[in-house]
Write a structure and sequence with these properties.
The complex is a heterotrimer of chains A (286), B (401) and C (323). Chain B has 401 residues and is of the alpha/beta class. In chain B, 43% of the residues lie in helices and 21% in strands. Classes of the chains: A mainly alpha (286), B alpha/beta (401), C mainly alpha (323).
């Protein structure tokens, strides 16, 4: 493979990786703070895309406005799901998986019914390509990566510098002790969940403008997200970011070299390797 | 003990279900002709299956207006039974069993190359007339399966008719093939390569790429293809959604050559929505810029009136045309015996929605050995501004025998 | 009370007899086909339930059936290995791969195992597609010969029935034996510490049960391949694994018999739902949620609870906990 193609695929991998990071961050927040394994996370991503689509094409909002709006809608959906389902299965890993699997099936089915089967595309005012020397980046992708970076930065500030972030970290370390210290467990959990959902949603909305949307796009990104959170270490935000970008790059380069089917196999091999060698991932807590 | 209670309850439920299924009365009315459609009615491919079933119903309604299907002096009501195979072979197998042994039909249609290929031998053994909505080549329509008919343009027809034209008009010398990595994609690429070799002058196939259906990021494939610098990228059997995304990313990557879909049934507005300006000039087979016959126009208006939208899926026309031919053959053969109907149908030629039409396959360039593949004039058009279909050329294989 | 019991035994016996002579009194080949698929589903459901009882949730059980299927088919079609040898090897190969994967992932936290099973399904599918030689690519492999001497649906029916019975007895014995797994299955809610103190090596038990469960899936896959005469990567993809999970959930994940009931009932329901294909996911998804949240014993657990309440009311006994 020529070096030009290699660098191009690396850049593609980084921009896609940023979006994987958004999805994976949501997943790891849900797992580490709320102990929820969300098998329906891919559907949240998908719904975020569709909400953005409807806001832009049916209600006439601007694309940029639709992003935070989609985040808010899915934040609220998260709260609803928490009250209805998650609260009953929190902590019980098996039940959690089964219930979220059920939710995933239902959302997909509703998706086919209401959104139809044709692919749709979220219209964005940005188009065209930027060239950096021999490398080209479609502007939409670059913008999405930057938005992703911005949100990740916000999340980092939230976790490390705000009171609620401190509470989240406290709950993650020891929720009983945190409660004793006066942390409002329920409120903080809700916020964490909402943020997780919102991040996945904006991922979907960003993808919707780069590629297309249909009700079954959730499965593969969710699988990648799971691999990322294990690679990065369950509960670690920094690890998640590094792992996400790394997986994006590996995915892209292998796919260009050997084809997409084998890119799966490589990601899986990495997963197995990590489980054997260092189960807590790059930066996870033991 | 609890277990026994449970098992007895379920056991009796099961036995009851079984009994009701096995002793279900066959439709009392003897004068009904049953026809089964096994097609994707859910999932991504439902965009093909649902319109196709509608087109079959149109044909049946038209025959009912005439009093029904006339065979042996009696008029028969036609009943369409729709099954959803979710575009999967495992479902297709089960549904075939259901149709052949449960509903006891003798005529059915299956959609999807990979589905039809497993259906063909089963239909052959049981002498079921198998109408295959599949693009593939000689592994489906050949002398081993005289009961199988292909209802649409086989994927050879696009390259046979139009590779020479793009070579002549645009000086194309090298072609890259990009297809989905399923049965249909692999057979399309194989057929394209074979046709290219048999043509004179012969275009060079310099790349053969496959992508996972439903992929969104085509840049790896695009990078590899563009490195070889093809004059034409033929997307073969790619779906409208995949085509649109591919063209968008292709344009962003700076490709300036030609591109076409030589086999698949593509709705232009889907492509335009995904690709915008990058879709302009894309060659598509089978789409008409203006109706070739008044009947075609009438069907267009009829479909749009009932189902709305701005464009009729092209699958509707081929579906209508082929089912119509089947009923014509049954009436001509004056019997429901599938061997006789297959023979009559195979020899049939008629004037339909697209002009003259018949089944081909014995020709050397197709190489199937038996006339079982639908042929009528197939246009090659280009996508114009806003997703409009722009007329380019209308050719057909020699239809006069 | 004895009369009650005898009536139930008689009912069960009748059903068993009917099942044994089924091809004699049901001539509809389509229904026989459904039964064959149902028995295979039962074997898969039992395996998954056993794995669950041992403490792991596998999201990729169908992938192991796929391994068995492809192994068996490739041995027969490419190396001309006789069917029964290929069948045995199919189980062995599947067991070995399960041993490898299980050995690595069953010792660490449950989530790793589950994600690995999920990932394995996708990876295998990718390999089958990417290497048409020898796996047949996306079109899969066609023209698979049936086992020697077993040509008609009726003959297949008996083959699969016997296979299902053998599997049932194996799993049933495992669950009700005096082994560590048997203790786990007795429903005692032991946490890992307690199990260790009782001398149960949890990880070893899990791996053994996982290997056995997957081996039977491999056998089932082999039979399925030679019955359907064709296989392709979609047959063993994630949606099949999800179907099996729903079967087990309907049976309550609680017992081997429960798995049988769940697979039977849902295969029948799946049949009835043919008219509304898109909604099958909806129904299954809703079932999963309802069962996990409200009916932890599965549908059959619910039925048995009601029956127990009724019976115990009749006898004036206080609420009795189910076996």
């Amino acid at each position: 493979m020529s070096s030009e193609i290699f660098w191009q695929s690396m850049v593609n991998g980084l921009t896609m990786g940023m979006i994987y990071v958004l999805i994976a961050l949501g997943l790891t927040l849900l797992y580490s703070i709320m102990h929820i394994v969300n098998f329906a996370h891919g559907e949240i991503y998908m719904l975020g895309g569709f909400v953005s689509y409807f806001l832009v094409t049916r209600l006439g909002f601007s694309y940029f406005l639709s992003l935070p709006m989609a985040m808010v809608v899915l934040f609220m959906l998260g709260i609803v799901l928490e009250k209805l389902f998650f609260s009953r299965v929190r902590g019980n890993f098996m039940h959690c998986l089964l219930v979220t699997l059920g939710i995933s099936l239902i959302f997909q089915s509703l998706g086919w019914t209401f959104f139809g089967t044709e692919d749709v595309n979220v219209p964005s005012p940005i188009s065209g390509v930027i060239k950096f020397g021999i490398i080209f980046i479609p502007k939409q992708r670059l913008l999405s990566a930057l938005i992703g970076l911005f949100l990740v930065g916000l999340l980092y500030l939230l976790i490390s510098k705000t009171k609620i972030g401190r509470h989240m970290r406290a709950i993650e370390q020891d929720s009983e002790a945190a409660e004793l210290f006066g942390v409002n467990i329920n409120l903080v959990n809700m916020v964490a969940l909402g943020i997780g959902f919102a991040l996945a949603a904006v991922g979907g909305a960003l993808i919707g403008a780069i590629f297309v949307l249909n009700p079954s796009i959730g499965l593969v990104p969710m699988l990648k997200a799971f691999v990322i959170i294990i690679m990065g270490g369950l509960g670690s935000i920094g690890g998640c970011i590094v792992a996400g970008l790394l997986l994006g790059v590996i995915d892209s380069v292998i796919a260009t070299l050997l084809g997409a089917n084998l890119a799966y196999a490589v990601a899986f091999a990495i997963l197995i390797l990590i489980i054997i060698v260092r189960p807590r991932g790059f930066a996870g807590h033991a | 003990m609890i277990r026994f209670i449970r098992m007895s309850i379920v056991g009796s439920m099961g036995v009851y279900l079984l009994l009701s299924m096995s002793f279900a009365p066959s439709p009392a009315a003897q004068d009904i002709f049953k026809f089964v459609s096994i097609a994707p009615l859910s999932g991504a491919a439902a965009g093909w299956g649902i319109p196709a079933n509608r087109s079959y119903r149109y044909v049946f309604d038209d025959y009912h207006k005439k009093g029904g299907l006339l065979v042996g002096g009696k008029h028969y009501k036609i009943e369409l039974i729709e099954y959803d195979n979710k575009y999967q072979t495992s479902e297709t197998m089960t549904l075939l069993n259901k149709a052949i042994f449960g509903d006891k039909v003798k005529f059915l249609t299956v959609m999807g190359q990979h589905n039809c290929v497993v259906a063909a031998p089963i239909c052959e053994t049981n002498k079921i007339l198998h109408y295959a909505y599949a693009s593939g080549g000689e592994e489906l329509t050949n002398t081993k399966f005289p009961f199988t008919f292909r209802m649409m343009n086989s994927n050879s027809i696009g390259p046979i008719l139009y590779y020479p034209e793009v070579m002549k008009q645009f000086g194309v010398k090298t072609i890259a093939l990009v297809n989905p990595d399923d049965e249909g994609g692999y057979t399309t690429a194989r057929v394209d390569k074979r046709v290219a070799e048999m043509l004179d002058p012969s275009p060079k196939i310099i790349a053969e790429e496959y992508y996972v259906r439903g992929t969104q990021d085509f840049t790896p494939v695009i990078l590899r293809v563009m490195a070889k610098k093809p004059d034409l990228i033929d997307m073969g059997i790619s779906s409208p959604g995949d085509t649109g995304l591919f063209l968008k990313q292709l344009g962003e990557a700076g490709y300036t050559g030609l591109h076409m879909n030589s086999a698949s049934i593509v709705t232009t507005d889907v492509v335009w929505k995904a690709a915008g300006q990058y879709a302009k000039g894309h060659f598509i087979i089978g789409a008409f810029a203006e109706p070739p016959t008044p009947e075609f126009d009438a069907l267009t208006k009829r479909y749009l009136k009932e189902f709305g939208g701005t464009a009729v899926p092209i699958i509707v026309y081929d579906g209508y045309e082929s089912i119509n031919a089947l009923l014509m053959a049954i009436e001509k053969a004056k019997t429901f015996d599938t061997t006789a109907v297959a023979e009559t149908l195979g020899d049939l030629s008629w004037k339909g929605l697209f002009g003259p039409a018949r089944w081909m396959g014995k020709e050397k360039i197709l190489g199937y050995g038996i006339n079982r593949s639908m042929c009528h004039p197939y246009p090659m058009c280009r996508i114009g501004e806003g997703g409009k279909v722009e007329k380019w050329m209308l050719k057909s294989l020699p239809l006069e025998k | 009370m004895l009369r009650n019991n005898r009536a139930k035994y008689l009912g069960l016996f009748t059903i068993l007899v009917l099942i044994f002579i089924l091809p004699l009194w049901i001539k509809n080949l389509y229904i026989i086909h459904i039964f064959i698929m149902m028995y295979l589903n039962i074997v898969l459901a039992m395996g998954l339930t056993a794995i669950f009882k041992a403490g792991a949730l596998s999201f990729g059980h169908a992938a192991y059936a796929g391994i068995g299927a492809y192994t068996s088919v490739l041995l027969v079609t490419m190396l001309q290995v006789p069917f029964w040898v290929a069948f045995l090897l199919a189980g062995v190969v599947t067991a070995l791969i399960a041993l490898f994967i299980g050995g690595i992932t069953l010792g660490v936290r449950g989530i790793y195992f589950t994600i690995t099973t999920f990932a394995l399904t996708e990876v295998l599918k990718g390999i089958y597609i990417a290497y048409p030689n020898p796996f047949g690519g996306p079109g899969g492999i066609r023209g698979i010969p049936p086992p020697p001497g077993i040509e008609t649906k009726g003959e297949f029916y008996y083959l699969v029935l016997f296979f299902a019975l053998i599997s049932f007895f194996t799993f049933y014995r495992m669950a009700h034996s005096r082994s560590s797994f048997g203790i786990l299955c007795d429903g005692l809610k032991l946490n890992e510490l307690l199990e260790e103190s009782l001398g149960i090596n949890t990880k070893a038990v899990r791996i053994i049960v996982f290997v056995v469960g997957c081996a039977f899936a491999g056998f089932a896959g082999s039979i399925m391949a030679h019955y359907l005469r064709q296989i392709n990567p979609e047959t063993f993809a994630i949606h099949t694994s999800i179907d099996i999970i729903v079967f087990c959930a309907a049976g309550g994940f609680g017992s081997i018999s429960g798995a049988v009931i769940g697979a039977t009932g849902l295969t029948m329901i799946g049949e009835l739902l043919y008219g509304i294909g898109a909604y099958k996911s909806l129904v299954f998804g809703a079932m999963l949620i309802v069962i996990v949240l409200f009916l932890p014993g599965g549908v059959m657990g619910f039925v048995s609870q009601r029956s127990i309440k009724r019976i115990s009311k009749k006898k004036g006994v206080d609420h009795v906990s189910p076996t």
